[in-house]
Design a protein that fits this description.
Blueprint (H helix, E strand, L loop, with lengths): L6 E5 L5 H14 L16 H4 L8 E6 L2 E10 L9 E8 L8 H15 L4 E7 L3 H9 L3 E12 L2 E11 L4
Parallel strand pairs: 4-5
Antiparallel strand pairs: 1-2, 2-3, 3-4, 5-7, 6-7
Length: about 170
Amino acid sequence: MAATPQLTIRDARRSDLGAIFDIYNHEVLHGTATFDTEPRVAGRDDAWLTERNLKRHPVMVAEIDDRVVGWVSLNPWSSRRAYARTAEGSVYVDRDFRGRGVGRSLLATTIERARAAGLGVLLARIADGNEPSVRLFESHGFGRIGSQRRCGEKLGRILDVELMDLHLDGG
């Protein structure tokens, strides 16, 4: 009987950037989970990881059998100082590993880390047609707070974006 592969979540390292960008770039080129349109390249775009405050805005990876199968990041919501208590969460899972609890584990760990970092509010922006992501965030207590109508255009489509939030401070 084969053993069930173990999922491990850990802080991302520079050596993970190739795998992180591979997962991300699939959505850049073929999906609407990100509105980025230019792929990221390890070696060129490393500052995305190396120049952030990792205590406040961590990047973590999920591994199965030493393979990065997903990642999560907390990003500043705005450069304006009054928004320092707010971060935006992003979760990406390799398309071959979706539906296996990877995203749920990553998001749960991220919420714990956000609380430990003293953040008060987490936000998520989810494009039209990405109901699995909406359900993921709702399963962790995020609520829908509104929509940005027709704000994005990608892959020949005009897209709305659902805004969601989670108040970590009981607000």
